[in-house]
Specification:
This protein is α+β, with helices and mostly antiparallel strands. Helix content is 37%, strand content 15%. Helix 25 (593-605) crosses helix 26.
Length: 721
Amino acid sequence: MFTPFHQDCPIGTKTHFFQLPKALGLSFSSAEELNKIIDKKLPNGLPQFVREEFDLLGHRYEFYHRDILECVRALYGDPELAECLVYAPEKHYTSSDKKSRIFSEMNSGRWWWTRQVGSYLNCSCNQSHHVPQKELEKEFPGITIVPVILSSDKTRVVLFGTKTAYPVYMTIGNIPKDIRRKPSRRTHILVGYLPTTQLLHISSVASRRRMLANLFHYCFARILKPLEGAGKTGIEMTSGNGVTRRTLPLFACFVGDYPEQVLVSGCKTGECPKCDIDRKKLGDLNTESSYRDLQKVLDALSTLDNDPAGYFAACSKAGIKPIVHPFWESLPYSDIYLSLTPDILHQLYQGVMKHLVAWVTTAFDKKDLDARCRCLPPNFNIRSFTKGITSLSRLTGKEHADMCRILLGLIIDMDLPDDVSPIPLIRSTRALLDFLYLAQYPVHTSETLQLLRQSLHDFHANKHIFVELGIRKDFNLPKLHSLVHYAESIELFGTTDNYNTEYTERLHIDLAKDAYRATNHRDEYAQMTIWLERKEKILRHQSYLEWCLGNAARVMAHPPSMAYNGVLTLTKWPSRRAVDLDEIVTKYGAVFFREALRRHIVLSKHSGPELNRNQLERAILYADLPFTSVPVYHKLKFTTPVDSARTKRLTLDAIYIRPARQSKKGLDIPARFDTALVNVGLGGETGVEGTTKFILAFTGNSGVHRLPHGADPSGVFVTRG
């Protein structure tokens, strides 16, 4: 018999198991009673979902949405975020002469500054043109801009089948990116579920596509309707610390993949959704182009009421599809073509890098590439492709990221057929990889953005090798062309980790897939919205209880640092207390460990210049080591120093080692070592001694804030708007 408790317990039998709520003194005895308590007694800081029906060609459709303005209020007024919100734009510089600007958070970009203070926004692809911005500070003195960031993406909610959901997420740019990108902070709010119908009852494919686009914009316009009035006159909002400000919620960014960007912008598939470049010249870096003219598009859309017959022609001339009232048509102080942001996951990893891997595997012998993959030594942070990379299919973004780490090493000394020089191919591959990693910098300066542009230029200067090898005929790929806009988007809205689609992809699990699995799969959206509201109430109540108990986590925002302020951190006890010196040489691979240790001992005794080179070498030769074993640490952490604002150390990066060993079954497990490069840096001191500022780069789990060329390591110079 199943006994969930000890048999001496009075409710230890299966019969008494169902009396557990009563025995514990709970106020409910079933899930239904618990749900009633949650619905009636627990408050929710977010508005309820509203069900809306509409008729389309004799068919009834529904979608669920929330009041987006109340969602903005909830995020802005969250007490847990009160100490970290930003309220004003800032200009950050690397030095006091203000020649090199820093871009990191959203408020450090040009978009917020030009909207707040007013200026000319330089927004161009390859040719500069200026768009005047209205000076909101003069019209609304002391106004606080609340940038609204939206994201939408259709996702499957079942493992087998075609059942999908179309969630729309919202967050605000006042929240620092380090907090905004953590799902546990709940800084993204689900504001609606769009209809997922395919309109199969419409026989014409072209008409069906137009109807689907109009349906998307209609639903999106219904969700964003409250922002129209609030964005024109401003509204009062109270932050979590009790301060009331007059705010202006403005639509700032749309985060989505290429199909979503095409749908939102109204352009045709195969074109750039941001600029007016000819689709036949997407692969030419020197083709002059500019962002699409929003006013020209709005003038074409306005002809629907006055000249319905010429509406199609006007939209075609403006370069967009004939959309009936797109959602961004009435949003104040917003430009949809500036708001479309880069997409690291789909544009780079699942786009350009996917193409690059295919080109490289076509250029070289596939057997040789796979053999080189199998010969790579194992590493903690590099995936081992034991079967090679040429036969893989249906790869994810993470798998493409793992392949990018080893791609250049695989081809660095391989020969192309017919004695063709591989130098242009290696240069083009390195240029794209440089662009990939530069684009993901958490802090950018004017110099690093120039390196980003230069790496793209280097690729286009060497891409002819793929045409000569017969791999490509042209490079008119929209995702490859999108790289042109990366540097400008970083200048406008901050670094790419402010608007990465990987964050919203992660939200699908909590806010779409789990919600669907909690239903009986019939009339699921009504159940999904109720389930989500109950979950939000429970999490909110949990936060309140933690605050009452004094266990609430303190959320703090820290300004970006241009220096790598790492503190060497080791565990109290070593991984192995005594390792023989011979084992250090044989198993750990430190061949010259004894010699290096003797040199360190001699130099510590003779710190002055009294020994010449010959005397030093002789002293090292005869130096005695009074021990035969040393303790060894298998993990080395680099953490942030503890200060008044940061009470807990954060791990910036770590180095791992593991010598060769045998498993329990007697199988040989090869050694794994991380590679580290330590500079003897600032002030002549080595970075691994104590808490000195230093520059360090190695193959760890996360990226390292490296000091850009010409930057002042003492700090960041800030100008507030």
